[in-house]
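WARN no homologs supplied; continuing
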Amino acid sequence: MSSPCSALLFDADDTLWECNVVFERAIDDFCGWQERPGLDAAAIRRLLGEVERANSARYGYGAAVFLRSLGDCLERIQGRAATPGEREHLRRLAEAVLDCRIESIPEVSETLEALGQRYPLVLVTKGDTDDQWHKLDASGLRPHFHAVHVVPEKEAGTYTRIVERHELDPATTWMVGNSPSSDILPALAAGLGAVYVPNDNTWVLEHAELDLAVDRLLTVERFGRLLDHF
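OK structure emitted
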C-alpha cells in the first residue's frame, strides 16, 4: 500500500551499505589481542563501548575517532601509554576502517533507481565529512541523490533544517534508516514519517527503544520492500 510521499531522505551507513561489520571485525581482532585471564572479550567490549561513547560525544564519528578509541582503550587496559609498536599494531587492526571500506547491501541500487524516478532523494549521513564522501563515491550510489548532507549529529533540528532548506513538506517527507536513535526517533520528532530498516549489525550506540505502533512509522524487513510503500 502506497504512503503519501513527496520526498525521501536516506541514511547511509548500514542502510545503503554495510559499514559496522568492518568496525566489528577490527574490534574482534582487538579483543583477541588484549584478552587474558580475568579480562575476557566481553569485558573489553564493554570498556571500549564506554570509551567510544565519550569520544564520539567529544570528537564526533569516523575512522580517526575509532582509532583514537582503540588507543585510549588499550591504555586503560595496560595502565600506561601505548608504545609505538602497539600503535602501529592498532593501525593494522583498523586498516579496513581507516580505508573506509564498505560492503554492498542487496537491492539497494535498483531500489534507489526506481524510487528516484518517483521522488527526489536526499542523503543525510553523520560522521567525518571526508570518510562519508569517500564511502559514497565507492558505493557508486551518488547519482541517485538530489542532494547530500553530511552532518555532525542527527537531531530533530537537523531534519527540520534540511526539510526547510529543500522546501519540503514534513507531512509527506520520510526518513529511511536502520538507526532508531539517529534516523527514526529524531525524524518523527521533527514531524516527518520514518521507515525503519533493521540491520543486525547496527552499532550498539545507535540502539534505542521503538514503539512500532506509533503513527507514521513503517518497518520493512529488507531495503527492496520500500517499493511496496512508495
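The two ends are 8 Å apart (CA to CA).
OK
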